Amino acid sequence: MRKLSSEMEVEVETLFNYAMRGKWGKVLEMYQNNPDALVAKITKSEDTVLHIAVSAGQTNFVTTLLDNIKDEACLVILNMQNSRGNTPLHLAADLGNVDICNCIAGRDPKLISCRNFEGETPLFLAALSGKKDAFLCLHYHQENKDDYTACRKSNGDSVLHCAINGEYFGLAIQIIKLYPNLTDAINEDGESPLHILARKPSCFRSSTCLEFFDSIVYKCLIVDELKDEPEEPSNREHGKNFKYPLNYETCMNFLPMLMKIKGFSMDTKDTKTASDEENPLRKSFRIYEQTTRQNKIHRLPPNWEIMFRFLVLLMKAILIVFGVGTLWIKKIERKKRKHIWAEQVITELVQHASFYKYEHTGRNPHSFGHNRRENIDSYMSREAFSKRLESPILIAARTGVTEIVERIIDTFPVAIQDVDSDNKNVLLLSIENRQPHVYTLLTKRKLIMENAVFRHVDYQGNSALHLAATYKKYRPWRVPGAAMQMQWEYKWYKLVKDSMPPNFFARYNKKGQTAKEIFINAHGGLVKDGSKWMTKTSESFSLVAALVATVAFTTSTAIPGGSDQETGIPLLKGKPAFSIFTVSSVLALCSSVTALVLFLSILTSRYQEKDFAVDLPRKLLFGMTSLFTSIISVLVSFCAGHIFIVEDKLRYAVYPIYAATCLPISFFALVQLPLYFDLVCSIFRKVPQQSKVTSH
Fold first, then answer.
1. Which of 51, 157, 545, 556 is the most exposed place for a label (fewest CB within 10 A)?
2. Angle at CA 588, nearest 5°, toward 584 and 594?
3. If you average pLDDT over residues 526-551, what whole number do you get?
4. What are phi and psi of 223, to 5 degrees?
5. 385 lies in a domain?
6. What does the H/E/C string look like for 619-640?
7. Are residues 516 and 543 in the same domain?
8. Rounded to an integer, what distance in angstroms lies between the CA atom of residue 160 and that of residue 349?
9. Are residues 248 and 114 part of one domain?
10. Residue 179 lies in a domain
11. Which among 230, 271, 278, 335 has a CA at the least distance from the CA of 130?
């Protein structure tokens, strides 16, 4: 940077003040008076006014400035870099300003391949920020569209790596269509785009936990698949972006849907239904379902599909009317959209790969020669090679992404033989990391069951049963408390043991341990913690059960209204309230005593590992059920007996009091309800649900 004169320094300071205050008209006047100020760097980051204008989104200023200067001066200012090496085109691509990208790239297409000090091109930054329109604009301005140089960073990351890592799946689909060779490209760590996608379990339904009502809405929503956009951005029609409140959106969609039902033809271009989540210029509401899913789902007839979409839209309108927020529905819709589009990206990645490409994962991040093996060997270090050995299917098995595991096995059956650096295959990793969905998928495959996969051992000699017997510090199951964690651990161990092939035999690992020994040693602390929890819970409940039993016994021996002195028959016999009192008092006494016995049996238990599987949870469940029944019965018997001593004119006044008496009990039941449901599910569910926490 050349040294400026004192007069020029004053002008630069004035130029800086005008730019900071947004007085772009004054800036144009200064440029007209002194063209040398074009190249002046006016900030500490060495930005020119053009850099600042692009960052502020001043499209009119940029186009006016570039239209009114000579071509030589235009190229000079467009090639100027700030302290990070960014040209104005870098900033425009990062912000996704399509108009400025079109204006600059149209004047100097070579800037698309210009790298900043981080080795990033404007095309790469557009993908890194998820700006699909800006990316397509820059792509179509490239002079050589078969040149992949601008798509890579110096460390080997490609635009497809960035799009998938940022979960911009709409952009990822476009990149795969435009640059199919990038599907197998690897960076300096040996990671391909499929590796990155396999490390994102939250992008898939199999690894996402939904609440009950969320799952119902999730199943009702319909999302369209992504479509590619082959036409150039300059030829696409950009509709107006109407702004209206979120609650009006459903209403705005009713008219087109009604016209479709009545038989009117509506223009539904693919470019409108194929919009993606990361582009805010697209229509925000999308209704779902994958209609073509590799011969698995048959498309509905057009009239049925339109009617079904209308019913879904009507349901959303009803939910809004009854106060259910649109944001809640949109949140679930975005989640499902991400799941569907991630599966679509998987399909594209696998379809563009062959087994040979899968075996060697990708290309040299610095070159794209024809000799692929030579390119890989020229740069990969020993560490990167060891990372490459952990193929995408192994990562997916460890993180619980069944969609990737299933798709790769269907396309490349030999991938089931892949092992990691510890010689663990897909089955062993799914067992070790407690991924029941992946394990269930593998056990349903006849080819895998007949294979030696189940008899495979790692370098330590651990079999599938040995790994099922291990236990890590984090809680692998989506249940509370050490006791229920222990229950699922034992069930998981039994599930793996029972699903082993008939010729599978117990064996020792290299440390001379059997699976049973590992299970007992590894779960000793969990058994201890579970025993403490069971003991404290049973003691608390047994105390309440004893109090209720005492009250119930006293109540059952007291006869409302007394009895006949000669016959001993109750005077109120035959009254409906007396019958209710009689039944409820006996039920309260029997259920309270039953609960007390069950809790005492838990306290006297031996607390062996297998006791946590069925015996202890079942006793706790039945004990809680009996306790709740006894408490309710005591209240009913009290109200039924008390009603006889209340005057007729006051009977309607005591009903609210009876209801208020039930509130504390209802609150207690609601507090214990989650534990109760967890116990029910744990007893009747055979395959457990994995936790959101996964080991890495």
1. 556
2. 145
3. 90
4. -125, 135
5. no
6. HHHHHHHHHHHHHHHHHHHHHH
7. no
8. 10
9. no
10. no
11. 278
Q: Which two tokens stand for residue 328?
A: 């809640």
CATH number at 93 reads: 1.25.40.20
Task: State the Cα–Cα distance between residues 503 and 275, nearest whole angstrom.
Answer: 53
CA dihedral 442, 448, 449, 455 (to 10 degrees): -100
Long-range pairs for 523-529: beta carbons < 8 A, 24 or more residues apart: 523/471, 523/486, 523/489, 523/609, 526/471, 526/482, 526/485, 526/486, 526/489, 527/486, 527/607, 527/609, 527/612, 529/482, 529/483
User: DSSP characters for 183-211?
Assistant: GG---TTS--HHHHHHT-GGGSGGG----
- Asked if the model's pLDDT at residue 630 lies above 80, the reply is yes
Q: How far apart are CA 367 and CA 458, in angstroms?
A: 36
pLDDT for the residue 167: 92
Q: Give Cβ neighbours of residue 475 (< 8 Å, ≥ 6 apart).
A: 485, 691, 693
Q: What is the reported pLDDT for 320?
A: 59
Portion of the chain with pLDDT greater than 70, in percent = 69
Is 590 part of any domain?
yes
653 lies in some domain = no
DSSP conformation letters of 44-78: TT---HHHHHHHTT-HHHHHHHHHTS-HHHHHHHH
Q: Where among 507, 525, 543 does a domain terminate?
A: 525
Tell me the sheet residues that pair with 14.
none
The total number of structural domains in the chain stands at 4
Taking a C-beta distance cutoff of 8 angstroms, is the pair 281, 98 a contact?
no
Contacts of 668 (CB under 8 A, 6+ apart): 631
The larger pLDDT score, comparing residue 344 to residue 68, is at: 344
The domain in which residue 27 lies consists of 6-151
The amino acid occupying position 451 is: N
> Looking at the predicted structure, is the pLDDT value of residue 487 above 60?
yes
| Spatial separation of the C-alpha atoms in residues 394 and 458, rounded to whole Å | 14
560 and 473 part of one domain:
no
Output the CA torsion sign for 281, 283, 287, 290.
Answer: negative
Same domain, yes or no, for 443 and 561? no
Sign of the dihedral through C-alpha 485, 490, 493, 499:
negative
Alpha helices in 269-363 (DSSP H): 270-273, 302-321, 326-351, 355-360
pTM beyond 0.70: the answer is: yes
Of the candidates 340, 276, 288, the one whose C-alpha atom is nearest the C-alpha of residue 312 is 288
Residues 520 and 542 in one domain: no
Same domain, 590 and 464: no
DSSP string, 343-378: HHHHHHHHHT--HHHHHH----TT---S-HHHHHHH
Whether residue 589 is found in the same domain as residue 463: no
Distance CA 90, CA 81 (A): 9
The rounded mean pLDDT for the chain is 76
Q: Which two tokens stand for residue 176?
A: 């795969």
Would you tell me the crossing angle of helices 98-107 and 132-141 to the nearest 10 degrees?
A: 10
Q: What pLDDT, in 10s, does the model give residues 112-160? A: 999 999 999 999 999 999 999 999 999 999 988 788 888 999 888 999 9
Give Cβ neighbours of residue 81 (< 8 Å, ≥ 6 apart). 46, 87, 116
- Radius of gyration of the CA atoms of the chain, in A: 35
Are 470 and 695 a contacting pair, CB within 8 Å?
Answer: no
Are 636 and 548 within 8 A, CB to CB?
A: no
C-alpha to C-alpha distance for 314 and 305, rounded to whole angstroms: 14
- Per-residue model confidence (pLDDT) at position 221: 75
Alpha-carbon span 367 to 571, nearest angstrom? 101
The answer to whether the CB of 260 falls within 8 A of the CB of 266 is: yes
Residues 50 and 84 sit within 8 Å (Cβ to Cβ) = no
Q: Which of 351, 379, 407 is the last residue of a domain?
A: 351
- 482 and 552 in a single domain? The answer is no
